[in-house]
Amino acid sequence: MSQATARYAALLKEERLRGSRRQLSRYGPYEKQKDFHAAGRSFRERLLIAGNQLGKTYAGGAEVAMHATGEYPDWWEGKRFDKAPLIWTGSETNETSKEIIQKILLGTSEPNMELEEFGTGSIPGEKIIKVTTRQAGVKGVVDEILVKHPKGTSRFALKTYEQGRAKWQGASVDLVWFDEEPDSDIYSEGVTRTNATNGITFLTFTPLKGMSETVKRFLQPDPGDRPRHTTTMTIYDAGHYTETEREGIISSYPEHERDTRAYGVPMMGEGLVWPVADKDIVIDPIPIPTHWARIAGCDFGIDHPAAGAWLAHDRDTDTVYLYDCYKKSDQGVAYHAQAFKSRDPLDFIRVAWPHDGLKRDNKDPKAGSNIAKAYKDHGVYMMRNSARYDDESGGAQAVEPAVQDIYERMTTGRFKVFSTCQQFFEEKRMYHRKNGQIVAVGEDIISAARMAMMQLRSARTYVPARAKKATFTKPIAA
After folding, report:
1. Residues of CATH 3.40.50.300 domain(s) within the chain?
2. Which of 71, 77, 110, 180 is catalytic?
3. For residue 27, what is the DSSP state?
């Protein structure tokens, strides 16, 4: 090899190494990962619950590296530390800490400063000050990582669940990241460590232990619990797979594990309200014939997201199609009203609304009417009365009849959902019972769909003379 060729090869190698040391700046999260990060601004406890190999650990590693270095990208909307934080990471064993956490943070599972891979993980190599190891029966298990921060030195302590609860006691910590699910006692200790600092705790895992105590803290919170945030990421939210690859991966899992490994759904068995496979009700979007009747439902949101669901009813076959849905937190009536108006250019789709108004446990008989009037004042075609099963019986309505109607239609092929309504499927996979009762958490779109189903008899086709504003003549399309 000539000297010129050797120099060129060395330059290429150096450039590849330099590029690999910029992993953090290259991190471009998927929408679900971005939502998870953003929730850190408002919630001290977060869960990214996801299927296998979807990027949950990668997202966790990127976030802790940002906090440790103090370098946040322009798109960042999550929490920012104004100091060099103390960070704990949690893994099941020393082996998994070495092979997963170390590799994500450092780029290699071997903490050798002479290795070229060192510093090619989520923590940029030039930011790493020092790495120490511990005697753990496994060679090269990292104990601490010291990182440069504009306001000092950030410190990582890499811990494991097998060390026991005692190793999770004592110190005050700014951030705790649990990768893979810890037992509830370990998780409680981790959260306790952040109380004095008003720090944050987050978890990234696939819920293979089912509805464990740790999972229940997020999906079945007790009354009065501190607010917690859950982001569910499915295989369809991960852009690094093609459609063919997704289908192949899903089919490779055992039938009883598919929902968990592909969609991040805890194994809840008979606890599911609608134990129907997504594939049995999903369809690709189709043009909606003009003779199909339409209706929308809404769920008002203050202490939970506001939501909408749009249904089309083929009366010839008595089949209902959920063709669009929507939900959004932290916005006012004007914002939500626009979401409804934008989906009804012909101004003929009436909106069914809940009697109880702002909160699920609201006993004020005027609450629903007051907020419905606010929507109407913003131009939404609200129904005159709140949703009800018959025209005579108003007021609060039972949940189960509409739930069972939808379930019966699902099992008989008469309730179909457009594949574009992924938020509905996310809620459906978590829609479950506790002690026989439906858990009214995270079912905002489902609630909106129930309102529409109660009033399905009131669904209308487009008739210009009957529409509020008969100024549109173009064909109706979904």
Report:
1. 14-256
2. 180
3. -
